[in-house]
Hints:
Blueprint (H helix, E strand, L loop, with lengths): L5 H18 L6 H4 L12 H15 L3 H6 L11 H4 L3 H5 L9 H8 L15 H4 L4 H4 L17 H6 L3 H7 L34 H6 L14 H5 L20 H5 L46
Amino acid sequence: MKILSYSAISLMAFALLLGTSTAMAKEVNWESLNASFGDASYVMDANVCSSCHEDSQQTFAQTIHAKVFQYGATPAGGSCESCHGPRSLHADNPTAELTLTSVQQAAVCLQCHEGGTRMYWQSSAHKTAGVDCASCHTLMEKISDSALLSKADEASLCYTCHADVRGQMGKAYHHPVREGQMNCSSCHNVHGSIGKSLLKEATVNETCFTCHQEKRGPFIWEHAPVRENCATCHDVHGSNQRDLLNAQGSFLCLQCHSYGGHINLPRYNRTSNPIGQGCVNCHMTQHGSNSPSGAKFTR
């Protein structure tokens, strides 16, 4: 009796899960994508493909798709035609007539990958900006250990378009993406979201609270800007001010609290210098207070 390795059993389990999802997935109408498929049928023989595409098959064999497809838990029995469509006409006469555009290719991917975190893809900012599956994923070759990405890691891939974020992440204070403790997907759902900026949660605050629960409240005394949006005071991708603040020390507070009657101006408040904490020397519970005497966030 053949004993399967742990990795093989894991792949089989993944294949079963994939099979469950594909059983309910919509069938690809190849002819609607390209009329040339109308008279084509499935060959269902990888050896036919390898007679011309042996190099491609060798690199593809190292990918997670290939390892899952061997259990047949996909359309067309896990053959090349699961993703490339019926190829009988191509096998008889190799031409470019059965090619698909990047948008059409994305429709093929969605036959298996439409649900879950990708349910908002059709209305996502990436799709409407012309980004498609092949823009971020390389399906025929293993370049990354994660999600068939076309770059070695997630951040490097995102930075190819979001160079401004790369610059922010290079500042003195930043979320630990450079250190490998977080990824862009820790906060963003790149395949679509109901929130702004492809955030995983509905709002900025709800996204921040997934890690910073102590800032959630409810508090007896709430600080209105904090309740409204964390980004009012923090630059989430990176800042040269500690705690990811948008401005230095008390200068941030003075953007709103510039009224008279209080020694809250830098020329009077010696603790507002770069060494001191400024306003938070006294108002240390600026995110909110549960103290009966904390109306001014001093307790």
